[in-house]
Amino acid sequence: MFIDFYEMLEISPNANSETIERIFRHFAMRYHPDNQVTGNESRFSDILEAHNTLKDPVKRAQYDIQYKAHLNLRSELTDQAGNPKSLDRDSVVQAKVLSLLYVKRRQDVNHAGIGDEELERMSGCPREHLEFHLWYLKAKGWIARTENGTFAITVEGIDRVNSEHHRDAAATRLLDHAG
Q1: DSSP string of 126-167, one letter each residue
Q2: Which of 43, 49, 63, 126 is most buried, by CB atoms within 10 Å?
Q3: Element at 83 (helix H, strand E)
């Protein structure tokens, strides 16, 4: 897991070596284990690691590469979180997976499972994204792994599909009557 040394030391990524030393001394005095009032061995160890990395120009350059990659990931997260279409796409994929497993269960109640690769192909969702949806659907109790490792819809999942279908059908009827 990435640790933001700049955040830990409460300094800018543009801080010069004098600033890094000054801030390190401040935190070192505060968190050193010998300090009876505010000593914290774990925090001191973290601050020492941050200092040793950022004071060495070669280590800092290597760290800054990781730091920039981390910032890009955070920016991507922020963009996705602010995009309502992303959440809509997730709902569509989850509904599609449930529908596929529903139809498979209806076709052969005793052999209702679909494998990971087949679900990936049929849903049109790449594996790295599909894992999230499978995790979510499993956690909700709407799908489960079968004895042979495939995924199958549960009774709760069937109830979910049916309730969504009835809700959508009711909305369609209301729209038909309004027009």
Answers
A1: -HHHHHHHHHHHHHTTSEEE-TTS-EEE-HHHHHHHHHHHHH
A2: 63
A3: none
Residue-level pLDDT, tens digit, the chain, 179 residues: 889 999 999 999 999 999 999 999 999 999 999 999 999 999 999 999 999 999 999 999 999 999 999 888 877 777 777 777 767 788 888 999 999 999 999 999 999 999 989 998 998 888 888 899 999 999 999 999 999 999 999 999 999 999 887 766 655 555 565 55
CA atoms within 13 Å, Cβ hemisphere of 15: 20
Is pTM beyond 0.85? Reply is no
Do residues 111 and 126 lie in contact, with contact meaning Cβ atoms separated by under 8 Å? no
The structure tokens 């790449």 sit at 126
CB 105 within 8 A of CB 75: no
Residue found by looking up tokens 């009711």 in the block: 170
CA separation for the pair 29, 23 (Å, rounded): 10
Both tokens of 130, joined, read: 């599909």
Rounded-to-integer distance, Cα 149 and Cα 136, Å = 17
Which amino acid, residue 100? Answer: L
Q: How many CB atoms lie within 10 A of CB 157?
A: 23
The span from the CA of 143 to the CA of 123, in Å, is 15
Separation between Cα atoms, residue 172 and residue 167, nearest integer Å: 9
